[in-house]
Amino acid sequence: MSRLTVIVPCYNVESYLDWSLGSLEGQTLSDIDIVCVNDGSTDGTLEALEAWAARDPRVRVVSKPNGGLSSARNAGIRATATDYVCFLDADDRFHESACENIVRLLDETGADVLTFGATCYPPEAGYPWLEGALSPRDALYEGFSPDILFKEASRPFAWRTACRTEFLLEKGIWFEEGLRFGEDQAFHFAVYPRAERTALSSLKLYDYRVAREGSLMSAVSDDFGAKMLEHVKILDVILRDWSAADLLSRYEEQMVAFCMDFALYDAIKLDEAPYRAVAERLRSLMGGYWSLQEVERMALPAATRRMVLDGCYRMDLTPIGRKRLVLSYYAQQNGRRALLRRLVSGKE
């Protein structure tokens, strides 16, 4: 009997399916279930999936109206009948021993949640932040520690996280279907605090198709401002969930710092109007949980403190002040030598 289900959400990915599903066809652990969710594709995706199902009895096709990535993943979870579940994006691929190692690690550790490493595809498209984020260390956490979220290389990207299926169902954990993107962040902020045991593995089990990174202070457009507004929506989902689970009051300083890093740090580089749009939306959201006086009493790192107080709650920074804050925040997070290297390389 299969122990692991691989959920493959599919929307207009006809040209990638032989690559992604081919990586499942050749797994060293052959006894797996493969649930491909056709999310209302308008190209030849459904026909390609049906052809795969005809040649490989492990492939099951679930077809539904278009609802987005979260909706497709949720449909896959509902169709899962195995002990464990994991995810494969249709334009990526698993390494040939991925499924075998996922089952082995979950069995050996008894973890509810397992997060493993990944490699960039093509390799030259990788860049330092991404390669670091995709390289967790070997670790086992009993219960929840905020270090899992805020210090470990544990997020984002739900496709490198496998879970006990019963754990997800018992805890009522689903992907947030109201988000345009960033559902992986919300998912990780939901699963890690609720897991009785979390395992991290340094094994690289996945190839992630990726584009190159832009520079730290590269020109950004109004579209980027819209993306940061979406980040505020993601924070709204996370904060509501943590508040309901009585987590927010226990880790408020870490969460305030995360709000700055996730939404305001990039927004503060924008022109005045889009910056203020993001800052005002973020202030409105955070103000529902922490007053200005409460934030002032928090023990935050200096640049983070200035960002939340002056850049968000008061919004009284000049354009020059915002540029200086970006640099001081980068130095705080990465070290002064790293900042100097970027300045010398002309990336600022």
Automatic annotation (TrEMBL):
This is Glycosyltransferase. SUPFAM superfamilies: Nucleotide-diphospho-sugar transferases (SSF53448). Pfam families: Glycos_transf_2. Residues 5-125 form the Glycosyltransferase 2-like domain. Gene3D superfamilies: Spore Coat Polysaccharide Biosynthesis Protein SpsA, Chain A. One of its GO terms (molecular function) is hexosyltransferase activity. It comes from Candidatus Olsenella pullistercoris.
